[in-house]
Amino acid sequence: MAKMAIIGTGNVGATLALLTLQRELAEVVLLDIVPGLAQGKALDLAQAGPVLRYDSRIKGTEKYEDIAGSALVVITAGLARKPGMSRADLLDKNSRIISQVAGRVKEFAPEAIILVVTNPLDVMAYVVMKRTGFPSKRVLGMAGVLDTARFRFFIAQELGVAQKDVEAMVLGSHGDRMVPLAGGSTVKGRPLSKALSQAKIEALIQRTREAGAEIVGLLKESSAFYAPAASVLLMAEAMLKDKKQVLPASVFARGEYGLEDVFIGLPARLGREGVEEIIEIDLLPSELKALHKSAQELKAIMARLPKDLFEAQE
Ligand code: APR
After folding, report:
1. Residue 77, SS3?
2. Which CATH class is domain 3-141?
3. Per-residue model confidence as pLDDT tens digits over 27-55
4. Contact call for residues 232 and 25 (beta carbons, < 8 A)
5. 3-state secondary structure of 211
């Protein structure tokens, strides 16, 4: 069975561990900086095994040696949002944490695919690629699956239809400039624009953009984690089972959609190698414009990052 390491065993990391074990998708290593936290959660999760009938192995640790041999390393380490904070507000603190974690992953799991969850997502994925020097196909971020799930949920709720009957995709940055593709969205094969008015669609798009903040506002002390963990699971499964599934992911663009040198949400074929191809789908001119605007903002943030984040700090 493949080995998967989860760095950061907070809400997202621990939930992801449970989902992974329940599917018997991988052997799991949990690692956290807080002494005892990963070990405690690993023991607790292992003891759910006899009840939930899973047999996969799980280990909690503070030592990076234990992640050796991981096919996939998921990074959820860092701070989560509090009410009133944007994802961008996490930039300074989380980029330091991510740079340090990436350095350790490079050292102990140099062949792994790294899937980043920590926010601000697209920028953190960029820090990981720069710090590790890994090929871009082995670094990606989770956002599009989550944003798409939220958009589909809101559409299904509005229309009173089954969520599985709603097809949609959200691209662009994981933030205010995300790009929900209303043009290609369908409900039971019928264009969304035939099912809802333009004003209603706009309102659902806006709610999707603010969906993370809506949950932070309610939880106050933490940000969303069930849907984020489920979204990571889908991506992990696509890669570890070599499914070649096309999912929206934060990936490093090299000319696709006219975008270059930027991590941004695009449809990607995920398989054993990681990001095996960035898929170019037809976009409306307004969607392409929004994608470029989103990329411009991200590139400006990436360009301003202190360069020592890309070098060894230890
Ligand atoms: N190394 C390892 N673990 C770390 C480090 C580090 N350098 N720094 C922090 N952590 C751990 C914390 O101890 C904590 O257990 O990361 C964990 C983060 O967990 P939570 O605070 O519960 O945050 P969570 O909701 O899981 O979100 C994690 O994912 O969705 C994003 O915006 C969210 O950036 C946030 C990240």
Report:
1. coil
2. alpha beta
3. 999 999 999 999 999 999 999 999 999 98
4. no
5. helix
Q: Are strands 166-167 and 186-187 parallel, antiparallel or unpaired?
A: antiparallel
Cα distances (angstroms) measured from residue 201 to each of 179, 206, 268:
13, 9, 25
In tens, the pLDDT along 143-192 reads: 999 999 999 999 999 999 999 999 999 999 998 889 999 888 999 999 99
Q: Could you give the CA distance from residue 314 to residue 311 in angstroms, rounded to a whole number?
A: 9
First CA to last CA distance, the chain: 33
DSSP bridge pairs for 161: none
Ligand 1 mean position to 189 CA, how many Å?
39
* Any ligand 1 atom below 6 A from CB of 119: yes
292 is a catalytic site residue: no
How far is residue 122's CA from residue 156's CA, in Å, rounded to a whole number? 28
Q: Write down the residue that tokens 């002390």 correspond to.
A: 221
If 0-12 CB within 10 Å is exposed, 13-18 middle and 19+ buried, where does residue 269 land? middle
Q: How many residues in total does the chain contain?
A: 314
Determine whether the shortest distance from the Cβ of 80 to ligand 1 is under 6 A: yes
Specify the fold of 144-302.
Answer: L-2-Hydroxyisocaproate Dehydrogenase; Chain A, domain 2 (3.90.110)
